[in-house]
Design brief:
Blueprint lengths: L3 E2 L22 E5 L4 H8 L4 E2 L8 E3 L4 E5 L7 H14 L6 E5 L3 H10 L12 H13 L2 E8 L2 E11 L2 E9 L4 H16 L3 E5 L3 H5 L3 E3 L1 H11 L2 H5 L15
Parallel strand pairs: 1-2, 9-10
Antiparallel strand pairs: 2-4, 3-4, 5-10, 5-11, 6-7, 7-8, 8-9
Helix pairs in contact: 3-4
């Protein structure tokens, strides 16, 4: 029986109590509650995240192993390196045609990710309740966007959660080839310079593995979270601003 959370209950069950592989919902930890900023922050500090479809109650998950991108292991493949070199050259001109910025229009990035189609379905897992919740969390200061702009147009990007020394990647979108990958490369450069070692990718995919992500055992992932989201780490969290000189960290 999966525990049901109540609106006033911010605590979660121990993550060792998730449903197992034979359940048909491996990693499911709890049902219900709400998507308040306080609950989301408490969940992410323990490696728990919401994921549900239209018509379902809020479902809370803790997956193991966890897919993580160590920022030092990010793979900048040859084709992307060439694209990025051209982009950076344009971005460093006196009147740049291309630029990467943080948080210029985070709601637009979240909405674009929600509208991105997935195979066989008209949209993504980012249901309207999630859009509203992460937009509110952005206004509270923990959700950020990395945006790729060309000729004044938002052509790609991603949004993520930042707590202390941890970044949790949420979703990406692209309206032009490699626009989301450019945003990811900028995020990696920023993280390297700010001492953020891991970007959480949640689920294992071949695409993430090709970029350098790898599975991490639950115990190791949660031990890392306890260290980098401890109160002192939260107080020392990096300020979100991208500078062109940060590209040199790649």
């Amino acid at each position: 029986m999966v525990p049901r959370l109540h609106p006033e209950q911010l605590d979660f069950p121990p993550t060792t109590e998730v449903l197992g592989e034979d359940s048909g919902a491996a990693g499911l930890l709890a049902i219900g509650g709400d998507l308040s900023v306080e609950r989301l922050r408490a969940a992410y500090q323990r490696g728990i995240f919401p994921w549900f479809s239209p018509g379902q109650p809020i479902l809370w998950w803790s997956l193991a192993p966890r897919m993580v991108l160590p920022t030092r292991d990010f793979k900048l493949h040859r084709s992307l390196r060439k694209t990025l070199a051209r982009f950076i050259q344009e971005a460093t001109q006196l009147h740049p045609r291309c630029e990467v910025v943080f948080d210029r229009d985070t709601p637009a990035v979240i909405a674009a990710c929600a509208d991105r189609p997935r195979e066989g379905q008209p949209g993504t897992w980012i249901v309207p309740e999630m859009v509203a919740a992460y937009s509110a969390w952005h206004h509270a200061g923990d959700v950020h966007s990395v945006e790729t702009w060309i000729n004044g147009e938002l052509v790609g990007g991603l949004y993520c959660v930042h707590l202390g020394g941890m970044v949790y990647g949420e979703s990406m979108f692209a309206r032009r080839s490699d626009a989301s990958k450019i945003a990811l490369a900028a995020l990696v450069a920023f993280c390297r310079l700010k001492g953020i070692d891991w970007i959480d990718c949640q689920q294992q995919t071949g695409h993430l593995a090709s970029l350098g992500a790898a599975p991490v055992a639950r115990a190791d992932f949660e031990a890392h979270l306890r260290r980098v989201t401890a109160p002192e780490a939260m107080k020392a969290a990096a300020r979100w601003q991208f500078e062109p000189a940060m590209w040199q960290a790649l």
